[in-house]
Protein 1
Amino acid sequence: MSPKNEVRPSTKKRIAVIPGDGIGKEVIPQAVNVMQATGAALEFTEFDWGADRYLRDGTTVPANGFAMLARDFDAILVGAFGDPRVKTNIHAKEILLGMRFKMDLYANVRPVRLLDAALCPLKNVEPKDVDFVVLRENTEGVYTDAGGVFKQGTPDEIATQEDINTRKGVERIIRYAFDYCRSHKKLDGSPRNKVLMCDKSNAMTHAGGLWQRVFKEISGEYGDIMAQHMYVDALCLQMVRDPRQFDVIVTNNMFGDIITDLAAALQGGLGVAASGNIHPRHTSMFEPVHGSAPPIAGKNIANPFGAILTAAMMLRHLGFTREPDKIEATVLEAVRQKKTTQDIGGTMGTKEAGEWVAEKVRLSS
Ligand code: NAD
Ligand code: IPM
Ligand code: MN
């Protein structure tokens, strides 16, 4: 603990920026530019972790890299990892999954909000109809890398991939979901009041049984919140058939990954979906839901709005309110005026769409 009267060298919030690979390197600079345009007291430090660095010197995460991020930064903004030159995807695994697992960022918060009716592929759906959040368990499940191969390359080969679910891990994400429901309002200002747990407990009975028991127990502590359940296959159907019914969804790591790409489609595609990887008391990490999109990388066509909305989410997490409100309102205005990239109906490039938002934010700050 530092003495009370010690002057901290900087009162600025310290942000680590890791653009990563592919379109991450194009969209993240736009997000940083927009944050700077708000005039908020922020200090950015960029890191070159990603495929280029790995191919150059074999480094994925430098020694004590995660400890350094936790110690020296208030939040981390990440682009995406994945490069066709790294066939094993080892760098993505070590950097991205490393951050989630080793920094214990157990809540992957993925808001699903339709900005404008024109962006939704469903008929007669308006922004108020798509306003839910997926809370994805982020440190367990089939992502733990437990398992192995036996008799590889022979006709008798066996591959196992274990699904790890701990009482502690399941309980904390379910509790996070109920607390989130209590403390977050919908965009129209109305309170959230439903938590839906999604699993596949009819087939995966061991892990599903644990999720079912813990959900029942924790929901009993939150009498003001409606507790619901859906199997993941049925949830996919309902998400497309009637997204209005969803409020807060909590699920495991893999189902959360899959349903948030589906949910992104309801919002206008991966180009606009934001996310946070959060531990309430640790330095947390924020990244757009999309990947590095190699086929469109380097062409100035990737949508920067997912990254920009992710930056707004990060600022809100850091305690800012006016700045993220302004960023979100400006992105909405850009969508309405079609000042966007091609994937959501505009004609602008990544840089131009990002700069349009930054300029508007700067003028109104
Ligand atoms: P992807 O998200 O990169 O792309 C899926 C589709 O969405 C593609 O058609 C792509 O062109 C489009 N798209 C994605 N982001 C867009 C944007 N901002 N603007 C416009 N269009 C956009 O997923 P993928 O193709 O399955 O994976 C590519 C690589 O990214 C792989 O190596 C994968 O492992 C990696 N990946 C990384 C992350 C991450 O780092 N968080 C997330 C997902 C995928
Ligand atoms: C995501 C991505 C990652 C995941 C990959 C790149 C490992 O798809 O963030 O949604 O599956 O979590
Ligand atoms: Mn994914």
Note: Confidence is low (pLDDT under 50) at residues 1-5.
Protein 2
Amino acid sequence: MQYGYFDDDAREYVITRPDTPYPWINYLGSEDFYGLFSNTSGGYCFYRDARLLRLTRYRYNNVPTDSGGRYFYIRDGGDIWTPSWMPMKSALDSYECRHGMGYSRISSVRSGLAFSQTSFVPLKDNCEIHKIVLTNESKADKDVDVFSFIEFCLWNANDDMTNFQRNFSIGEVEVEEGGSRIYHKTEYRERRNHYALWAVNVPVAGFDTDRQTFLGLYNGFNHPDAVFAGKANNSVASGWAPIGSHHIKAHLKPGESKALVFVLGYCENPDDKKWASPGVINKAPANALLEKYGSPEAADRALAALKDYWDALLGRFSVEAEDKRMTRMAGVWNQYQCMVTFNMSRSASYFESGIGRGMGFRDSNQDLLGFVHLVPERARARILDIAATQFPDGSAYHQYQPLTKRGNNEVGSGFNDDPLWLICGVAAYIKETGDFGILEEKVPFDNREELADSLFIHLKRSFDYTVTHTGPHGLPLIGRADWNDCLNLNCFSKTPGESFQTTANFESGIAESVLIAAIFVFNGPDYIEICRRTGRAEEAAYAAKAVASMTETIKAHGWDGNWFLRAYDAYGHKIGSHECEDGQIYIESNGFAVMAEIGLDDGRAQKALDSVKDKLDTKYGIVLQQPAYKEYHLELGEVSSYPPGYKENAGIFCHNNPWVTIAETKLGRGTRAFETYTKICPAYREDDSDLRRLEPYVYAQMVAGKDAPRFGEAKNSWLTGTAAWTFVSISQYILGVRPVFDGLLIDPCIPVAMKGFSVIRHFQNAVYRITVNNSAGVEKGVKTVTLDGKPLDGAVLPALGDGKTHEVSVVMGLK
Ligand code: BGC
Ligand code: NOJ
């Protein structure tokens, strides 16, 4: 069953009933200030760091789910209801939530009163705007009371949920303008120079800032005493739980509308300008925000600017084809999710609590792949941040903190795939932009300026780290784990509660990873090309030798007969082999080895992918491995600790499905490539939402595998490397519009049934309008390409860089 539909022209997903199988959310904000916003107005917001600078409180894993957000209570005569459905679960005559690009709009009607709430973060300002419109659709006058409600978080989200002996005494607020402006200033006196603002642009009848006074101690959000009494108490919080609530009275004649603008903002003062007078905070930044967004017209203008921003961004890659599910995902939602993963990394979603992880070294590098074409300058800055956390020997902090940009000691290092992802991210950036100059940027190692060297040297250290850390078979040592965080081959953890990710781990010097070997061979040609094109011929020759030798090593020691092995454990035993009882075949090494074109020459590539199809494929995607581990293996770690079918233990871990998709295109099997693409693509499961449960417009990290009782159910939507890799697979390998060092290669690999498509691609300051004709019904192969009417030699469009639009016509077929 469906709970909504795609409105493609508006680039919105329209949710038509509030009781979705799980909260279906959106992200507000694009650079520093972010809000998570569910279809019932749940969620929270933060400035830059969801852990350290959280403005509003959110209780994860709460009962009922998703309670807490920006709420508006209506009192229409005696009738009390919440137009976003939650928290009162009010019966509504109509309801709709439109999630768009960086904004959401909830509209509902009850008893002749229409409500709409448009919520977004304006470009460049640190606040959420909630524009409310009330319309009297009835035939009689209405007296309506509106009560707003948010609950402040005492900034540090971790402390906020744990340190109550302290928290219950420290909360402080200020109230001005009779209550229309509420300021949350906990800890401002001491070590903070920031406060939060919750304001409305009209005079109010009253306000509350103390939670207990507003709600009643034993009430939930669904029964606030103040609303039921029809009157705010003008409470000023002192300790306990500061909130912000305005009480607004509106008289509406039949047909009349009234608009209110609420601003929820983050304000910062320089240390010497913190105070207006003793004990009174300097409101200058708040006043500036309110002046700017103090009217419905101003809010509308800010929303229009946001829409223009997204029009321009998504105009950089768009696709037209018969299959609308593909075009809306590839052209809109997949790219939108790539922006979110770039911004959030793995920090804040409805599954990531915002207090856990920093920016992952490997995650952030992979996120670049789907983002670099959108805002290359931000990708560039990110690359330099990431590289600065690398150690001089090429290894890397597994994570770094976005606020400090420093490596995170708690998680440490030793994930031996990490260094190679830097080559991958930088190569993608250079192919997109042609900016080889980035290689000469001086970048610190371990955040220490005195250790700075060129970015090129960082890449070399990455490359060399793999070359110099090999085990008994000559394959790369796995270290703590490789891409699969749960393959903890040097961990041997017996202590309950100990983290597999961080626990002291010994380096056996034996456990090896075939996946790292394949990642090395995959990135090899790019590294070699980078060396060649920057006059480093000797390094290129050395690298070519190392890559050729690793390829031979994989063929000699990484092949199981019908597929690629996964690894060797600390005893030197095979993992991912037919000799194993469980975990006989894994997806990652097979997808990546074929992506790296290993075995294209001798039939192994095809054999490997056939085995993947035969042993790992399901109707909802390809599972991570088979058979699932049924018992815990000390020598394998977390992967064998999960119940069969979930997460890395044979779940459909979506991230590496597109590796197989790309690998299939290497074999030219376009029909199969497209099949693997569609199976995990959420838009294709829209009418299966009761089983899948999560948003039909974004990828999830995992779908339960065939061994799980809930086979087909998705978890962990939004923050997953799946976003970037699926975008790469569909845009660059299926549709085949792929940046290469010489320009834009056109190399589609599509189902025979797809008779054509067109793509508009902005690339290095020129626009290419590409039309692909496949009336020949082939899966791969370009017969002719014309550029502005002239036949092109080969299929690489040169980077014309002239700011103009160019017509490209491609005919597929045999040469
Ligand atoms: C999860 C992985 C995750 C890791 C690091 C593990 O428990 O299964 O998917 O990457 O934790 O947080
Ligand atoms: C999620 C992590 O963010 C990512 O780095 C890792 O590769 C996958 N889990 C697989 O374990």
Note: Residues 346, 360, 362-363, 483-486, 648 surround 1-deoxynojirimycin (ligand 2) (CB under 6 Å).
